[in-house]
TrEMBL record:
PANTHER family: WD REPEAT PROTEIN 8-RELATED, WD REPEAT-CONTAINING PROTEIN WRAP73. InterPro entries: Centrosome-WD_assoc, WD40/YVTN_repeat-like_dom_sf. It comes from the Eukaryota. This is WD repeat containing, antisense to TP73. One of its GO terms (cellular component) is MWP complex. The lineage of its organism: Eukaryota, Metazoa, Chordata, Craniata, Vertebrata.
Length: 203
C-alpha cells in the first residue's frame, strides 16, 4: 500500500485523492459546497472535508468509495473541525465557541462539551490518545477540563491561575499538562492529571 496525497479543489467543490508517487487520481469526491479545510484520519482511511460557511462536514472513505457521512451543525454554525486520535470521532467547534460537538462514526452517538475557549491552542490530546484537555472560559475565569476519550466522560475540571489562558499542551508521557498565559503575563503553569498545580514560572 503506497502513500497517498490529498488535494482539495475548492473551485469545483471537489476532493481529489492522488497517489503520491505517480500523482495518478485514485478517487474523486464531490462535496456540497466549497471545501475550506481537509484532514486525514490517523489511520489514513478517512478524509474530513469542512465547509464552514454552511456548517457542514463531509467524511469520505478510501476503502469504501460509496460510503460517506454528512454532519450538519445547523444554526449553531461551524468554525473548526478535527479528528480525534482514534480516527473514528470528529470534533466540531460551533460559532462563538459555544460548544464542541463530538460525533462518533461508529455508534453515531453525539457528546457535547460546553464553554471551549477561543484561544491559540485550546484542545490537546495525550500522545496515546487516552485523554483530551480543553481550555474553557466561564464567568470571566479560565478553566481546564480533562476528558476520557474512550467515552468522552469528564475526568477532572479545575480552574487555572491565569489571566487569559492562551494555550495548553501535554507532556510526552501524558502525566503533566502545561498551560500558558497571554504574552502580557509571560507565565506558564504545570498541572497533574488530577488538576494539582505542580509548578509555575513567570518572567
Amino acid at each position: 500500500c503506497g502513500f497517498v496525497l490529498a488535494q482539495a479543489s475548492c473551485v469545483q467543490y471537489r476532493l481529489v485523492v492522488r497517489d503520491a508517487s505517480s500523482l495518478q487520481i485514485l478517487q474523486l469526491y464531490t462535496c456540497l459546497d466549497q471545501i475550506q479545510y481537509i484532514e486525514w484520519s490517523s489511520d489514513s482511511l478517512f478524509i474530513l472535508c469542512a465547509m464552514y460557511k454552511r456548517g457542514i462536514v463531509q467524511v469520505w472513505s478510501l476503502e469504501q468509495p460509496d460510503w460517506h457521512c454528512k454532519i450538519d451543525e445547523g444554526s449553531a454554525g461551524l468554525v473548526a473541525s478535527c479528528w480525534s486520535p482514534d480516527g473514528r470521532h470528529i470534533l466540531n467547534t460551533t460559532e462563538f465557541h459555544l460548544r464542541i460537538t463530538v460525533w462518533s462514526l461508529c455508534t453515531k452517538s453525539v457528546s457535547y462539551i460546553k464553554y471551549p475557549k477561543a484561544c491559540q491552542q485550546g484542545v490537546a490530546f495525550t500522545k496515546d490518545g487516552r485523554y483530551m484537555a480543553v481550555a474553557e472560559r466561564r464567568d470571566c475565569k479560565d478553566f481546564i477540563s480533562i476528558f476520557v476519550c474512550s467515552d468522552w466522560q469528564l475526568l477532572r475540571h479545575f480552574d487555572t491561575e491565569t489571566q487569559d489562558l492562551f494555550g495548553i499542551e501535554w507532556a510526552p508521557n501524558g502525566c503533566v499538562l502545561a498551560a500558558w498565559d497571554t504574552c502580557l503575563e509571560y507565565k506558564i503553569l504545570l498541572y497533574s492529571l488530577d488538576g494539582r498545580l505542580l509548578s509555575s514560572y513567570r518572567a
